[in-house]
């Protein structure tokens, strides 16, 4: 079964249980009244009163600050490395930008398909944001070249990415590479800008929940939040938008199931 088929079956099952879907619509604000009920205002002007809210708005991959980056998305610029993208860079050079585990895992996977892989680091320490075991594997892989103090500064091509220019941020030396595929792993931006101040965020903007907010100043006195509850009682968060998650599909699915358990506990 494909992912699309599974999602469609989940949608149909939710309809059978009486769930109502409203799309396309965005939430403008959430305000809690004196009785503890949350008033959710939509961009359409409609309002919903509810005892619980589950935030599952996810995060967007960060783009490089290059004009051509968006133009080549899906046409040479990718934010994941699967078997589909791997076929596109077979026997050619693949450029991976980033220094975290996601970038390292992508570089290792692509090295089995591409002729060579260039892993670009803005700094000079491969282990600063990457697990040691993964860094060790990368250093032993003969067709992966780790390029420290290096940034991707230009992209070029007709209908598809064909070349990239890289720059050493210390010497300012530049090099043009023939490259049909660039993989960007420079972090993610959570969709939390619409949340009220009563919902605490970490220093990167992700929603804080459960044990990490037990002594938070925004948490009402005397409350012990459940695993996925935020500092606003009755408001929960799950998936990529939540602080401390691995940003993986399986984790998000488990989070969703746990979140509904938390909602039931709260309502009881």
UniProtKB/TrEMBL annotation:
Full protein name: Cyclic nucleotide-regulated FAD-dependent pyridine nucleotide-disulfide oxidoreductase
Domain of life assignment: Bacteria
InterPro entries: FAD/NAD-bd_sf, FAD/NAD-binding_dom, Ferredoxin-NADP_redctase_2
Pfam families attached to this UniProt entry: Pyr_redox_2
Keyword Transmembrane helix: no
Lineage per the UniProt record: Bacteria, Pseudomonadati, Planctomycetota, Planctomycetia, Pirellulales
Species of the source: Rhodopirellula europaea 6C
Transmembrane stretches, start-end: none
UniProt xrefs under Gene3D superfamilies: FAD/NAD(P)-binding domain
UniProt GO molecular function: oxidoreductase activity
FAD/NAD(P)-binding domain segment(s): 16-255
Coiled coil (residue ranges): none
Alphabetical keyword list: Flavoprotein, Oxidoreductase
């Amino acid at each position: 079964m494909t992912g699309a088929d599974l999602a469609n079956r989940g949608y149909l099952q939710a309809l059978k249980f009486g769930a109502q879907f409203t799309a396309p619509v965005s939430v403008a604000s959430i305000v809690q009244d004196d009785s503890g009920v949350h008033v959710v205002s939509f961009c359409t002007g409609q309002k919903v009163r509810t005892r619980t809210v589950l935030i599952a708005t996810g995060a967007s991959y960060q783009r490089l600050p290059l004009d051509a980056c968006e133009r080549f998305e899906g046409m040479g610029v990718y934010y994941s490395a699967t078997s589909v993208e791997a076929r596109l860079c077979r026997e050619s050079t693949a450029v991976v930008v980033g220094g975290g585990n996601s970038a390292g895992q992508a570089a290792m996977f692509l090295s089995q398909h591409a002729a060579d892989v260039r892993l670009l680091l803005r700094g000079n320490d491969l282990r600063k944001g990457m697990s040691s075991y993964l860094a060790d594997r990368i250093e032993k892989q003969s067709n992966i070249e780790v390029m420290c103090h290096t940034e991707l500064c230009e992209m070029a091509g007709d209908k598809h990415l064909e070349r990239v220019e890289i720059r050493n941020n210390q010497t300012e030396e530049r090099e043009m590479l023939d490259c049909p595929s660039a993989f960007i792993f420079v972090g993610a931006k959570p969709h939390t800008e619409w949340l009220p101040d009563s919902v605490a965020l970490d220093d990167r903007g992700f929603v804080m929940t459960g044990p990490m907010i037990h002594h938070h100043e925004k948490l009402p006195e005397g409350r012990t939040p459940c695993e996925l509850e935020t500092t606003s009682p009755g408001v929960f968060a799950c998936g990529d938008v939540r602080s401390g998650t691995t940003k993986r599909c399986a984790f998000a699915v488990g989070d969703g199931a746990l979140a509904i358990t938390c909602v039931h506990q709260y309502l009881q």
